[in-house]
Amino acid sequence: MLIAIPLYVTLFIYLVLLAVFVAFAVVNFYHIITSGTFTLASFSVTFITFALTVLTLYYTFYLAKDVDWQVSLILFNSDWLSEFIPS
Amino acid sequence: MHLSHVIRQKSYERVEYALRRHWLTFVPAVFLFILLLGVPLALYALINSLFPAILNSAVIFPIAVLLGSVYYLFTYLFFYVQFIDYYLDLWVITNDRVVDIEQHGLFDRVTTELDLFRIQDVTSNVKGVLPTVFHYGDVTVTTASSNSSIVFRQIPRPDHVRQELIRLADEDRKYHLGDIKSEN
Known about the structure:
Order of helices and strands of chain A: EHHEH
Order of helices and strands of chain B: HEHHEEEEHEEHH
Helix content of chain B: 40-55%
Number of domains of chain B: 2
Number of helices of chain B: 6
Oligomer: heterodimer
Structural class of chain A: alpha+beta
Number of helices of chain A: 3
Strand order of the largest sheet of chain A: 1-2
Radius of gyration of chain A: 21 Å
């Protein structure tokens, strides 16, 4: 028995996690705005976080752009067990 | 949004102090952040030296890239939340009251107010080597009418703040002499 999924499914999971990240980052920024604490310090930390995020997303895209996302990702293969269980 | 709007500053009120925790209390979070940033690099170096073939796999390489990306994004988020937790803890002293705004995580914010003229005790507490060297510590303000108290946590120059609180409370008591007599 073989259970496999296309590799692009991991991309969808990645996008969901990215959406969670964006939602929490926006809530953080909202807190800074509504609490009257938009100062040089909070601006600097927000800018650093934003810049690092952009760099990470760019580098992720750079590394993943040539990947063949149609490849199968094997989750389970019964042959793996045959190595341990003699027939 | 300005601070005066956040505390709903009254027309006769002026902000004397807006206090945050000492910057040194945020340094451990910065070190932890830098340490966490290094973890994937160390893992990459380890795998690359022990099992270099793994990273050339058509399946494992993209998964590793996505996992690394998610790890870094959530490390930035963790740092940002730590900063919010640190920076949004704010104690405002006006010539009329003390406002304590404390942020616990992302979705928990507690705001406490007490009138200056109700202050009974003000205690400053500097405990430990770093607080002693860098002059930061806690100031506890308790009121006469209730058991409620406000703790200014790890603020710079706690002794000075304690003295100022006592001075401002004395001044405010003069204005509220009638209120105090009617309560008694």
